[in-house]
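Deliverable D4.2, example record:
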Amino acid sequence: MSRTKVRGTVIIDNPVFGGIGAIQVPVGTTIERDAGFGMDGVAPSTVFSKGMLRYNSTDDQFEGYDGAQWAQIAGGGGGGGSTAMAVQKFNGNGSTVTFNLVPTNPTVPLASASTLMVDINGLMQDEGTGKAFTINLVSSPQTLTFSEAPVTGDVITIRHLGEISNSVSTVNSSAFGSGFGGTIDTVNDKILMLDASANTVYSINIGTIAGDPVPAQSGQNGKFLTTDGTGLSWVTVTHPTELPAQTSQTGKFLTTDGTNVSWATVDALPSQSGQAGEFLTTDGTNASWAVVDALPSQSGQAGEFLQTDGTNATWEALDVSPNEGSYVIVTTTHSAVLGTRLLCDTTSAAFTVTLPTTSLVAGEAISITDGVGNCATNNVTVNGGTNNIISTAGTSGTTLLIDDDGAVVTLIWSGTAWRAIV
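Output generated by the structure prediction step:
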C-alpha cells in the first residue's frame, strides 16, 4: 500500500490486497449495530453511510448498508455449512414496503417468483396480487413489495430457493424442524422443501416422484376409486343406503324403516285460504283447520277460575265448602283464610284465630273444630277484627270464645257480618 493515498482516516485510492489470507471486517451484533458506532473516538452515530460493510454475529451473515437499510450480502453467512441457499434479511420500520432482491449471482436475475420463500418473524407469507407481497422481475434491481409495511421490530427473511443444485435428498418427516415449508419451482420443475430451523433446502425433481398410477378410466363412468391396501381399482357403489330409483317419485320424500330407504308420500296440508287464526287438528286420519274458542276477557277477574257449561267458558269464583278438602292443624295463633277448615290443638296453650277482613265473599265460610277435646281448659278465641260475629243466640261482638270440648263452629260471611253456626 506504499502508493495508496490516505487522507485522515479515508483511503482515497482503490486499494488492492494480495496474499492468500483474509481481510478482517468489523464483527458485531444487530443491537450493537443499531446503537451506532464512531471512528477515532468520535461519539457513536446511527447515521450510516452507503457502502458500509460488516459481519452480523446475530444473524451469522455479512451485511451492507445500501443507503436506506442494512441487508444481507448474498452468499454470506452460513455458519452451519450450507451455502446452497441465498438468504436476505431485512428489518421492518413501519414505512418501507419495497425491498431489493439480490440473487446469489447478481449477474443472473431471478426467473420466477416461485423460487422465493418469504417469512416475517417466521410466519410464511403468500405471493400474488391481493396477497402479502408481489415480485417485480423486470425492474433493476428486482424488488419485493409488501401490501403493508412490516412494523418496527419485524424481521423479514427472503430465501432464494431456486438457486440451488438440482439434487435429491432422501428425507422423512422427522428430518424437518418446526420451520418446515415448501414451494414448487414451476420454471425448473422442482419441488423445493425448506427446513428453516436448520437453514437447509431439499430439492426434488418432479419427474422423479413415483406413485401408484390411476387405473384406466375408460368405461368407468359413475364408479368410485377404491384400494385394497395394495392396488387401486374402480368400483360401483352398492351400499345399502344408496338412493332408490327416483323415476315417477315426483313430490315424494326419502324415508327409512331403519334398514332400507324408500320414497314415501307425505300428507299435504289442507288449504290455508280463508283459515286465518285457525289451528291445525287431526281426527287420526285427516288433518283440517279448526277454530279454537277464545278465552273470555280476563280484566277484573283476579283470583277467579275458568269454568265451562259445555258451550261457553266464563270466569267464576272457586266455591270451596268448609266441609270439603283437608284440615289445617293449628297449635298457635293463626290467621284464617276463606274456605279452610281448622283443626285446633290447644293441648299446650290457648290461642287466637283471626278472621280475614278483606276480599270477603258472601257465602264463603271458615270451619273451626276442637281437634283434641281440650277447649274447655285452653280456650280458642275467634277475632273478627272490625267485623262483628253473631252467635246462634243472636248476641253480637267482634270476638267469639270457643270453650267447649269437642266444639265445631262454622263461621259464614253474610256480606255484613260473620254468622256462627254450632
